[in-house]
Design brief:
410 residues, mainly alpha, 18 helices
Length: 410
């Protein structure tokens, strides 16, 4: 049974956007709206094909659902950290209102600017708008500090979409995760705005409208300095204890697990990330091999450093701290499992994830310039993923060839 809107789109609108129509160049826009509103009618006409209830649109929407706990918690936590730092009563309403004013504009700019690039390339290349941007446009804001200038959000997402994906041919051809590519660009181009102690909590007058609604118009501070747990652990002096330094700074293991700490918008709460991970695993979307092997690699490298006689308090930090600090868990769950830029073979996924965990701790501990190592670890392994898959496939070919030869000799 067809609904009136379906008849309207098929009989009135579709002819103008299809080949020969006056608006044929804008067909990607029509197709995007049609796909969003209805189930696509196009199916594979010839074999081989596999029938599945989940198409790309539904897959991406499920990833967005999995990111919702991180987004909602990130909005609350951004407002909560702001209100605490500025001496404002941290009520639920005040936290959500302040956090929404800080986070939602970042999310909006990410989708608007990134969406414009997606549409532009789709129109020029005459292909459909890919739903993958729905995930990229959400992931990028969640790995940014809540005080990031909006113009940098626009520049970063532009770099991630154009340089990180489109110049390689678009979705399915990119070798790097676009959201992480965008963040890496901002990290190296504008380090003052994305690292250090002054980017995680804003000043009181960041949004006068919110101040007026909450009755907090009095000014208290231009800049609030507050280091993240990674920065505290990295700055621990020799002869001291990194875990004790974290506790003195107010970052207990439970605080870091719950996520009530300064940090990137969506990556502070282990509990919110685990909720998203459960959704991904139950829906069969993300690779559990990459997640498990990444956690094993991170824990193993942290434990190895605990055993080495090195005069560095960071090396003595218990390995389980690395699992809840910074953005490691967010990265291994939502970034490393990208099916395009990650490893594709089952054995390769174990190797790929394990090395991400190892490199994350190695970068954190040995390079004080990069206290958060998961970004560089994932990008490096994105580049190595095709090579890993190549060696795994070659190993399988050699094994089968040897088995075939043994049968011939028998």
């Amino acid at each position: 049974m067809k609904f009136p809107i379906s008849d309207l789109m098929e009989k009135k609108l579709a002819p103008h956007f299809k080949n020969g129509g006056k608006l044929a160049r804008l067909y990607p826009l029509y197709e995007a709206g049609d796909t969003f509103a209805r189930t696509p009618a196009e199916v594979t006409q010839s074999a081989p094909h596999v029938r599945d209830a989940i198409d790309q649109k539904r897959l991406m929407i499920l990833v967005i659902y999995a990111l919702m706990p991180c987004l909602f918690f990130g909005i609350w936590n951004a407002g909560h950290q702001f209100n605490l730092a500025n001496g404002i009563d941290a009520t639920l309403k005040a936290d959500l209102l302040r956090g929404s004013a800080m986070v939602l504009p970042i999310l909006l700019v990410s989708y608007l600017v990134g969406g414009l690039w997606e549409v532009l390339f789709a129109v020029v290349r005459r292909h459909e708008i890919n739903e993958g941007f729905l995930v990229t446009g959400m992931l990028f804001p969640l790995v940014l500090p809540p005080t990031i200038p909006l113009w940098q959000v626009a520049v970063g997402i532009s770099f991630g979409i154009v340089i990180g994906k489109e110049i390689f041919g678009g979705v399915g051809y990119n070798i790097l995760n676009p959201a992480l590519t965008a963040r890496a660009f901002l990290f190296f181009a504008y380090p003052k705005w994305i690292s250090g102690d002054t980017v995680w909590v804003g000043s009181l007058n960041a949004n006068p409208l919110v101040d007026k609604l909450l009755g907090t118009a009095s000014h208290t501070a231009d800049v609030v300095t507050q280091a993240t747990p990674l920065a505290v652990a990295s700055a621990a002096e020799r002869g001291t204890n990194a875990a004790a330094a974290l506790n003195e700074a107010g970052y207990s293991l439970w605080d870091m697990t719950l996520g009530t700490i300064p940090g990137c918008i969506g990556s502070t709460s282990v509990i919110a990330i685990l909720l998203g991970m459960i959704i991904l695993l139950l829906c069969g979307i993300a690779s559990w091999q990459i997640m498990v092997s990444g956690i094993i690699g991170c824990a193993a490298m942290g434990a190895l450093f605990n055993l080495l006689p090195i005069d560095n308090p960071y090396t003595a930090l218990p390995f389980y701290y690395h699992l809840v600090m910074g953005g490691f868990l967010f990265g291994i769950v939502f970034m490393a499992t990208d099916p395009v830029s990650g490893a594709a073979t089952n054995v390769g996924k174990w190797i790929y994830g394990f090395l991400i965990g190892v490199l994350t701790v190695l970068i954190r501990v040995t390079n004080p310039a990069f206290p958060e190592g998961v970004m560089l670890a994932i990008l490096f392994m994105n580049v190595m993923a095709p090579l890993i898959d190549h060696f795994v496939v070659q190993a399988h070919i050699k094994k089968r060839s040897a088995y075939a030869r043994s049968l011939n000799h028998a």
